[in-house]
Amino acid sequence: MNRETKKRKCYNTGQENEMTIQIKKTYRGLSPGMLCDEVQGLLQKQGIVVVETESQTYGLPSGDTQSRTTLALKTPAEQEKNQEEFGSVHILGSPQDETKMLLDIDETLFPQEKLSAFQNDLDFILGSYEIKW
Which of 7, 17, 42, 52 is deepest in the core (most CB within 10 A)? Predict the structure, then answer.
């Protein structure tokens, strides 16, 4: 498969057995807003609560702009206080018509079959925009 998926130990949570899967994608001709909306919808389809935590636009000396959006991924729960954060998505849009996405997700809280379904949907819908390295 043409996806870059890396497993690495996650050291920022204090849980020694936690494993994080990382997915990196680069797209051309796709707006950061559309990528954000599509990723959000596809993750919600897999039962994940997605919360936009940060969205910023930066001006560049050339007059162009860059945008950055961060999403927090949480487990579903009746009450918000019981939702457990288990991943994040970072989306960066550049003036060179490229949009990059980095997804970090705890595989112990998000089953591999749901992750595969998310990746398959993402590749099907946005594959024609993806830059293959």
Answer: 42
